[in-house]
Specification:
Radius of gyration: 20 Å
Order of helices and strands: EEEHEHEEEEEHEEEHEEEEEEEHHEHEE
Structural class: alpha+beta
Distance between the termini: 16 Å
Strand content: 25-35%
Oligomer: single chain
CATH superfamily of one domain: RutC-like
Helix content: 10-25%
CATH class of one domain: Alpha Beta
Length: 420
């Protein structure tokens, strides 16, 4: 279902097993937006930021309480900030509104496409109805790492993973961030092979780095870090023989550094399946030729997690590519259509069955939340019109970001939940 309230928030709530899952998109309430008059033309002041962020969290608080997502709720959020220097201000105001909630947040220097100072995509998990066993939530590192458990599934959420030393260069800093992620997994009882989803935000994504490109250096670091890792070996369908990597988004950001968010899952049940999904109309990213990157991007197009009556799908960052070629250069409308066609083919029930998960009927109507990265702000209206037509009744966050190929103008990711 979807509900929209008048204060800049849209959200959907859906069951997954015995849990309830909320996907929420929020921006500051329109009445709180500053004008050029009260900033003398110098942009938003700290006071303006504070008012806008207060309005955003107040709206979120109203929704969470209304839908009975109380203090025993796991929150994973992505903040998109027009000024990353306001990160600590946002964290402070969040703690004022939600002092007892467990959360893992990533702060991304990437402006919301609407022009507001901040946008939030929030994923909340809590127990189901009164007959359900409450979920367990812990905060090993409040604000950055949480673990939650329900239905004999244990989830690890981590946000804002940044390099922890003073290395220089896209490869070195990306590798350092991945290594920090690995240490955090180990410290919380997980391993690399249990990662199901990553988000990688890299500043100046497609700019040159020496004789190569920053995105290609990111791919080289990811390849080296994942070398020898057997992903999901205990959870794959019997006989599965395809490539196995986490779902992932690699997208541009407005600074020069890298930041990562990630999710891992472990299961204490035999009827849990985790399987990467590939689009029948696309070459797998990890099979790309060297023309795109000497070390191919090591990610899957999507990741499906299934228990007998529910299937959760992380849709990776998806663009206008078929086979391995970019389609419809300089045409944002057709690129958006092709991107949505790719997602539809990826999550289709027949494709799920092909990958070893049967009995679910799935299409674009099962998307519960989407994030749309727009390369050129002046094309937002065109891209939004296509999404409004085809992605009805779901929360959507639009941000301005560079995409991994110069000719690609839009990228879309999302969360899919299907119940029998």
């Amino acid at each position: 279902m979807r509900k929209i309230i008048e204060h800049g928030v849209s959200y959907s709530v859906v069951p997954f097993g015995t849990s309830r899952q909320m996907f929420l998109v929020a921006e500051p309430e329109e009445n709180y937006l500053c004008s050029e008059d009260n900033t003398q033309g110098h942009g938003e002041t700290t006071s303006d930021w504070s008012r806008q962020i207060h309005s955003l969290f107040k709206s979120c608080q109203t929704v969470l309480h209304r839908e009975h997502f109380g203090e025993n709720t796991a929150l994973m959020g992505h903040f998109f900030l027009a000024d990353i220097g306001k990160k600590e201000l946002v964290r402070q105001i969040f703690s004022e509104f939600f002092p007892k909630y467990s959360c893992a947040f990533t702060f991304i220097p990437q402006p919301p496409a609407s022009g507001v100072v901040a946008g939030l995509e929030l994923w909340a998990i809590t127990g189901g109805n009164s007959k359900s066993i409450p979920i367990s939530v812990e905060s090993p590192q409040p604000g950055f790492v949480i673990t939650t458990e329900f239905d004999d599934l244990r989830w690890f959420f981590i946000g804002d993973v940044r390099p922890d030393h003073l290395s220089i260069g896209a490869y070195e800093r990306s590798l350092a961030a991945f290594q920090r992620l690995g240490r955090q997994l180990e410290q919380n009882g997980f391993c690399l092979g249990q990662i199901v989803r990553t988000w990688i935000y890299q500043g100046h994504l497609v700019l040159p780095e020496g004789k190569t490109q920053r995105y290609k250096e990111l791919n080289r670091a990811r390849t080296d870090f994942f070398k020898g890792v057997e992903f999901l070996k205990d959870y794959l369908p019997l006989g599965y023989c395809g490539g196995v990597y986490p779902a992932s988004t690699g997208i541009g950001a407005d600074d020069v550094d890298v930041v990562i968010g990630a999710i891992a899952v472990s299961a204490n049940r035999k009827d849990f399946t985790a399987v990467p999904l590939e689009n029948p109309n696309q070459t797998s990213a990890f099979d790309y030729g060297a023309v795109y990157s000497p070390q191919s991007p090591k990610f899957s197009r999507a990741m499906a997690l299934a228990i007998p009556n529910s299937c959760f799908i992380f849709v990776s960052g998806t663009a206008s590519i078929t086979e391995s070629e970019s389609r419809f250069p300089e045409n944002p409308e057709k690129q958006t259509e092709q991107t949505l066609d790719n997602i539809a083919a990826l999550i289709d029930g027949k494709n799920l069955e092909k990958h070893g998960i049967s009995g679910f009927v799935s299409d674009l109507s099962h998307l519960k939340c989407a994030r749309v990265y727009v390369k050129r702000p002046n094309e937002l209206a065109i891209i939004k019109s296509v999404c409004d037509k085809r992605l009805k009744n779901i929360p959507i966050l639009y941000t301005i970001a560079d995409v991994c190929r110069p000719e690609l103008l839009v990228e879309i990711e999302g969360f899919v939940v299907v119940n029998r």
